[in-house]
Write a structure and sequence with these properties.
eleven-stranded mixed sheet, 32% helix, Peroxisomal Thiolase, Chain A, domain 1, 16% strand, alpha/beta
C-alpha cells in the first residue's frame, strides 16, 4: 500500500515509499458514462456499451479476533454473495462470471471466488477467479468485470472482495519445511531417523505473516509515518482527522445510512448487523497513545490508523441493456479509464464537478499528506510532470459517512464499499459525479469516477 510519492525527497528518504492518489503511473481506474439532470455535461458516447452498477452489499466489517474469529474467508464471501442475491432477486443462472479479490490468502481456498460461489449456490458452470492487488483488489475485480462486459463477453458479472485477518496463515521455517518434505520422501527408517536428528530448536520458529512490502521490507505504517513527516502533517492533525472519521461514521450508522450492510448469522452466535470498530473518542484519549511504528517520535498510532478487519463485499455489474431488460434500476454508470487527475481529464471534468469524494483512509497521515500534495503546484510540477495542481477535495464532500479508519478496512473488500457508498451518497445528496481513490502496496493506486444513474 505504498508509492514513491516524493521523488524529490530521495536524497533524504532513500528507501521511502509513500501513498498517493494522483500519480499517473502504475495506476488503473474507472470512469463514468452518462448524465443526470443536474448537469448538462455528460460522458455518454453514442454506440458505446454502457456498464452499470446495479447493487452493492457487504457483510458488517468487524475487528479481527471478534465475532467472525472461528470462520474462514470463503464463509464471509459466501455471505456477501448470498446477500447480493437476496437483495436483488437475481437468478443465479443470470450471472455470467464471478471475480473476487483477496490479499492474505487461505491456502485451503486459494481461489476463494470459486469456493464462495459454489457455497452460495452458483452453478459449477459459472466461472470464477480470484485477483490480488493489495488494498485495491476488489477495485481490480470491478475493473475486470467492466472489461468483460465492455468487451461483449458477459452481460452480468459479480465482483467483490474478502479479507479475514482473524486467522492468517503461519508457516514453519524454511529449514523445517525442507526437512519435512525430505522426511516424506525418505524410504528407510535410517534415513528418517537421520533427518529427525537434524532438527534443531531454531527450526521450530514459525514464520509469521507481516503487512510489509517484499521489495522494501517496510511496513505500511512506517511509510505513512515518513510520509506524514515529509509533508509536515502533525500528530494533532492526524488525530483530528481520525476523530472526524469515527464521528461521521457513528452519525451515518445511527441514521441508517450504511444500507449496504447485509446481516450475517454467524453459526452458534447472533446475527451480526453492524460494524463494530466505530468508536468516537476524544483528542485527550487519543493523545495518550504511543507511536505504533516509528518509535519514539513517530506520529502514526493505533488511533489514527485503520485496524485489522474481517469482512467481505460484493457488487452486481451489468450491461445497461441487460439490467433494464431484467427490470433493474441501476445505481450508477461505470467504464474504464485512468486515475486522478488523469481520470478527470479523460472524463472532461474538473474537481469542481465532483459532488462526492470517497477516498480510502489507510492512515490519517497518508490522507492528509495526499491532500497537501494535491494542493501543491510545486509537487505537481516537480513530482508529477504537470503544469499545475489538481486541487484538494473540499472536506464537506469528503468521506462524509466515515471511512476506513472508522468503518474498518478488510483489505480486498474496501474497494466495493467505496463505490457503493458513492452511489448511495449521490442518490441521497442529489449529486451527479463521485470520485473514488485508493492506495495499494507496491506503489499502486486506483481512481474511479462514478456517475449517478438518471433518476
Amino acid at each position: 500500500m505504498a508509492t514513491m510519492l516524493l521523488k524529490s525527497f530521495r536524497s533524504n528518504l532513500v528507501n521511502f515509499r509513500a501513498y498517493q492518489f494522483g500519480a499517473e503511473r502504475c495506476i488503473s481506474a474507472t470512469a463514468s458514462v452518462q448524465a443526470q439532470a443536474k448537469s448538462k455535461k455528460t460522458l455518454a458516447k453514442p454506440g458505446v456499451k454502457n456498464v452499470v452498477l446495479v447493487e452493492g452489499v457487504r457483510t458488517p466489517f468487524l475487528q479481527s479476533g471478534t465475532t467472525y474469529a472461528d470462520l474462514m474467508p470463503h464463509d464471509l464471501a459466501r455471505a456477501a454473495l448470498q446477500g447480493l442475491l437476496h437483495r436483488t432477486g437475481l437468478p443465479k443462472e443470470a450471472v455470467d462470471y464471478i471475480v473476487y479479490g483477496t490479499v492474505i490468502q487461505e491456502v485451503k481456498t486459494s481461489n476463494v471466488a470459486r469456493e464462495a460461489a459454489l457455497g452460495a449456490g452458483f452453478s459449477d458452470k459459472t466461472p470464477a477467479h480470484t485477483v490480488t492487488m493489495a488494498c485495491i483488489s476488489s477495485n481490480q475485480a470491478m475493473t475486470t468485470a467492466v472489461g468483460l462486459i465492455a468487451a461483449g463477453q458477459c452481460d452480468a458479472v459479480v465482483a467483490g472482495g474478502v479479507e479475514f485477518m482473524s486467522d492468517v496463515p503461519i508457516r514453519h521455517s524454511r529449514k523445517m519445511r525442507k526437512t519435512m518434505l525430505s522426511l516424506n520422501k525418505a524410504k528407510t527408517l535410517g534415513a528418517r531417523l537421520s533427518l529427525l536428528g537434524s532438527i534443531r530448536l531454531a527450526h521450530l520458529s514459525p514464520e509469521l505473516p507481516a503487512v510489509a512490502e517484499f521489495s522494501t521490507a517496510e511496513t505500511m505504517g512506517h511509510s505513512a509515518d515518513r510520509l506524514a513527516a515529509a509533508f509536515g502533517v502533525s500528530r494533532q492533525e492526524q488525530d483530528e482527522f481520525a476523530l472526524r472519521s469515527h464521528t461521521l461514521a457513528k452519525k451515518a450508522q445511527d441514521e441508517g445510512l450504511l444500507s449496504d450492510i447485509v446481516g450475517f448469522k454467524v453459526p452458534g452466535k447472533d446475527i451480526v448487523s453492524k460494524d463494530n470498530g466505530i468508536r468516537p473518542s476524544t483528542m485527550e484519549q487519543m493523545a495518550k497513545l504511543k507511536p505504533a511504528f516509528v518509535k519514539p517520535h513517530g506520529t502514526v498510532t493505533a488511533a489514527n490508523s485503520s485496524y485489522l478487519t474481517d469482512g467481505a463485499s460484493a457488487v452486481l455489474i451489468m450491461s445497461e441493456e441487460k439490467a433494464l431488460a431484467m427490470g433493474y434500476k441501476p445505481k450508477a454508470y461505470l467504464s474504464p479509464t485512468y486515475a486522478t487527475p488523469k481520470v478527470l481529464e479523460r472524463s472532461g471534468l474538473t474537481l469542481a464537478d465532483i459532488d462526492v469524494f470517497e477516498f480510502h483512509e489507510a492512515f490519517a497521515g497518508q490522507i492528509l499528506a495526499n491532500l497537501k500534495a494535491m494542493e501543491s503546484d510545486w509537487f505537481a510540477q516537480n513530482c508529477m510532470g504537470r503544469k499545475a495542481k489538481v486541487g484538494a477535495p473540499p472536506l464537506d464532500k469528503f468521506n462524509m459517512w466515515g471511512g476506513s479508519l472508522s468503518l474498518g478496512h478488510p483489505f480486498a473488500a474496501t474497494g466495493c464499499r467505496l463505490v457503493t457508498t458513492v452511489a448511495h451518497r449521490l442518490k441521497k445528496e442529489g449529486g451527479q459525479y463521485g470520485l473514488v481513490a485508493a492506495c495499494a502496496a507496491g506503489g499502486q493506486g486506483h481512481a474511479m469516477v462514478i456517475e449517478a444513474y438518471p433518476q
